[in-house]
Design a protein that fits this description.
Largest sheet: 7 strands, mixed
CATH class of the largest domain: Alpha Beta
Oligomer: single chain
CATH topology of the largest domain: Dipeptide-binding Protein, domain 3
Number of domains: 2
Amino acid sequence: MKTIGKRGFLKGCLIAFSWLFFASVIMAAPAPQGVLKQGIHWDNAADWLDPATCSYAVSAHLPLYLMHDALLKPMPGNIYAPCLAESYTVSPDQKVYEFRLRKGVKFHNGDTLTAEDVEFSFWRYKAAFAKQIQSRTEKVEVVNPLTVRIRFKDPYPDFLEHMLPGVSTIGWIVPKKYVEKVGDAGFKKQPVGAGPYKFVEFVPGVRLVAEAFEGYWRKTPSIKRVEIYTVTDLATRTAMLKRGEVDVITNLGGVSYEDVKKDPKLKLIPVPSPTRHFLQMTMQWDPKSPWSDPRVRKAASLAIDRQTLADIHMPGGGPAGEIGLPDMDPLAQRYPADPYDPAQAKKLLAEAGYPNGFQGGKYYPFDSGYWAYGEQIATYLRAVGISVDIVLLDRVAWYANREAGKFAGGIFNDPPMAPTIGGRLAYMFGKNPYGNYPDIQSLWEQFQKESAPARRKELLGRIQDLIREKTMFIPLTTNTAPCGLNPRVKGDPFKAQPIIWFTAPFEDIELQ
């Protein structure tokens, strides 16, 4: 009979102790608990529950970050963070993108993620940039259950950028078998994703509710239930926070900003935003319109007091002279903001033949959270003689009208949100049915075909210079979205900023 020596006995005890220790840790890991309630300043839409029909807008990504997951997406410290794809490669000619999927990822209904789900989701996608991306695609190959290869007809150096918020949602994946079983309409009623939370309820204009998915590949959320309430009125949101009815509110400004800032029981988070609002003047390509004269467009720019606009509506923000994000994107150029000079604005209008001003058409500010911002811009324009008729739309309607070209004949606040200048120009030109200048359009077409980094940088720089020279758009302010928290929320839940300015990732949020 073989005997166990002292060393063997100690080794056996150590192994046994290790297994007991790890087992106790696993058993002691707390299950998700508690409820997180948020009051947001925009409305979610049913289309936003489905990646195939979701808007390119960053705000539309809230339901996606809550319930779905993507091949890659912006995460803390990495705007191209591998998620459902644990890795990806790009061929030297930039025609082939290969994604290696994580093993064992589960959808909420128990289905296992495979390359077939990726192929299915790619071709099922029908929202922003669908036609542009899919028409450039030669094939999507299921190499094996965990590898998918997307092959394009020509070099496509911007493909990864076109998967980011602000451009498209083509990289977000849904379960093929489930969608085929319930259909598109059924999927919107009961969406199934691979994200940290499972769908519970959606009431348009009221709330979106989800519960923790303990099988989420990245980590089990610590909070059991998340309730997102649409509360477009700022005073109401602030009152709900102070009464403890919600734990987080978004987009503070004016009196409410100061109120939360001074309240010792609350916490103020100065969340930066990637948005750069600018004025889009759709009649500038009509030679009969006053807007076709660059002096008129410059006059409109000089009429706006950007610093005061930011101080009131974007606390922490300031004047913007560019449409890109030069602090984080080396290809985005920085320009000084036009000064506030109403006297010079009136002089330019007189030189252009409008000493008494003119009717500038209908004006569509961005959604309800920014109506006061837009109304103040209209006041500045009227002060130098440019009259506009304000039309107010909620966020869902605003995006639908913008994309359908229904703002033609008027002006509107456009909010490009893509993290890169290439993505922003794709939004402005690729989704812009309102017009362009031949020289800028030519440079943009060259850029889309060019793969050499130095030449791409040169083309982008020239495009940005021409936009500024022509005052094609009027940059307004850098954007912030200050948010208020009650003490129940631990730390800073806005971890993926500045690209994602709502609370994300949801699985990282904790309650005290």
